[in-house]
Structure formats: structure tokens, C-alpha cells
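Backbone-to-sequence.
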């Protein structure tokens, strides 16, 4: 399953928080560096998600379609053959906006490269961004918001991304626990390999395993009737408790506890990550 962007990243948390507060704007500007397109699709998934407990859930039909680029109500607006988008293309989009969505409550238009939008194009777009139908949503991706006219910017919520953003130990633990809960050994191996290739340090790895151990333990408590809290760790624990059985959670808790202590013996990061993935594989093959 394509996760689009790290669940623990600042932009993902910002999108989830806005969706939880029912305050996700119909017009967004994602600026800066990093995976702007992935963040835009994540925001689109939040707009179309059918979950009642947290958006985007990345597991409902709508989220899966957005993640795999097959949702009929999400449209990527770009012109790969020309430096600038033709005014006719923008006018066609303006007509399309007034057609009702096919499946969801919204139609989401993602502009992955705002450098293609000249002043004339943006003036055509301005009216529908400002006064379009309630189901229309727009996400503009740009390295610098100055690529967009002040009139467009004033009608959008702007979120800046930092491509150099690193996940903390807690955030890496949340990502690890989500991989475990999804039950896909290939996904876990790929994620672990990415951490090793990113030159994770021993201290970071140890913190990650210790945090993941706490999350798994919290998931066990939730299955035993503990009330859920609205914190990132508790939300991740709730995700694990819904996708794993009690015996599986108990085994994972024991494994995470074991590997949280491996770095006390000065074992290499790559060796421990590989051994951990191998230890979890029997549990992940349940699906």
C-alpha cells in the first residue's frame, strides 16, 4: 500500500489535524522542497476519505484509489509537452469543475508544477478558486509561493514543506508500527532498508525500538479496555490494536523489547534491523 508521505512528518500531521478539526481548506498551496506531489495526494485522500475515526486512513477504498492514482475525482492538472499550460486547458478545467463528483463529496484538482501557470491562466482560475462550487478543491504545488499571483495566494491556505525534515525517534517508531500492523513483510523490509540507507545511527535506532515497544504495549492495553487518548502515539497504538490480534501484539511487544536492548551490546545498526525484520516475518505472513 502506497503511504504517499511519512505518517510522522510535520505536513502529514498538519493535514490530519486540519481534517480532524473539519478545517481542511478547499484551496491549498504546498510550497518548499520535498515530495510536494505526495503531500498533495495525501491531502486529497484526506478530503475524500470515508473513515469516521481519522482522515486520511489510507485503508478505505477512496484512500487506496487516491494512493494508486485511480480515483475518478482526483485530477492531476499539468502539461508535460509544453512549458506553459494552454489557456484552453485551463478553460476546460473551469467547465469541468461544475460537473458533480463521480464517487466522493469533492473533486480535487492537483497542480504539481505551478511554474506552468502564467498570469493569464491564474486569472482564469481565480474565479473558480474564489467562487467555485462547494465540491471543488484545489491544491497548488510550488517551490516558492511567489509563482502564484497574490490574488490566488490570498484565497488559499499555505503550508511550507522542508525536504530536509527528519523524523524523530517517536515518528520513526510510529512508521515502524504501521508497517507491522499492515502485515506486509516486503513493505517492512523496504522501510528498514531505507532507514539503513539513510545512515540511521545506533542511538536513533535504539530510541525507535524503545518507542515502538511502548506503542505496542499501549495497543495491548487498548485491547484490554483502556480508554484511547488523542496523542500521536495513542492514535498509532489504536491502529495496531485494530489490525493485530492480542497474541500477535504480545509477540511483537516481546520482540521490540528484545531489539531495544540489542544496541546496549554495540551491535551494528544494519545487522539489528535485518535481524528484526526476519524475526517479525512469521507474524507478518498471517495475511
Amino acid at each position: 500500500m502506497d503511504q504517499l508521505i511519512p505518517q510522522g512528518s510535520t505536513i502529514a500531521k498538519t493535514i490530519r489535524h486540519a481534517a480532524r478539526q473539519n478545517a481542511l481548506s478547499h484551496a491549498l498551496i504546498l510550497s518548499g522542497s520535498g515530495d510536494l506531489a505526495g503531500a498533495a495526494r495525501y491531502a486529497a485522500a484526506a478530503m475524500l476519505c470515508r473513515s469516521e475515526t481519522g482522515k486520511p486512513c489510507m485503508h478505505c477504498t477512496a484512500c487506496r484509489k487516491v494512493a494508486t492514482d485511480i480515483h475518478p475525482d482526483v485530477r492531476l492538472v499539468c502539461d508535460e509537452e509544453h512549458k506553459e499550460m494552454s489557456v484552453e486547458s485551463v478553460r476546460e478545467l473551469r467547465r469541468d469543475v461544475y460537473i458533480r463528483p463521480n464517487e466522493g463529496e469533492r473533486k480535487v484538482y492537483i497542480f504539481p508544477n505551478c511554474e506552468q501557470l502564467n498570469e493569464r491562466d491564474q486569472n482564469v482560475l481565480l474565479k473558480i478558486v474564489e467562487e467555485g462550487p462547494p465540491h471543488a478543491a484545489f491544491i497548488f504545488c510550488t517551490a516558492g509561493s511567489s509563482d502564484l499571483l497574490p490574488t490566488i495566494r490570498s484565497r488559499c491556505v499555505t503550508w511550507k514543506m522542508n525536504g530536509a525534515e527528519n523524523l524523530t525517534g517517536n515518528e520513526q517508531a510510529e512508521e515502524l508500527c504501521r508497517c507491522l500492523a499492515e502485515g506486509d513483510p516486503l513493505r517492512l523490509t523496504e522501510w528498514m532498508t531505507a532507514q539503513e540507507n539513510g545512515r540511521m545511527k545506533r542511538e536513533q535506532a535504539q530510541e525507535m525500538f524503545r518507542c515502538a515497544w511502548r506503542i505496542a504495549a499501549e495497543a495491548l492495553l487498548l485491547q484490554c479496555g483502556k480508554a484511547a487518548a488523542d496523542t500521536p502515539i495513542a492514535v498509532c497504538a489504536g491502529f495496531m490494536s485494530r489490525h493485530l490480534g492480542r497474541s500477535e501484539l504480545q509477540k511483537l511487544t516481546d520482540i521490540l523489547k528484545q531489539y531495544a536492548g540489542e544496541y546496549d551490546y554495540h551491535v551494528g545498526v544494519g545487522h539489528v534491523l535485518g535481524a528484526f525484520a526476519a524475526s517479525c516475518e512469521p507474524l507478518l505472513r498471517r495475511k
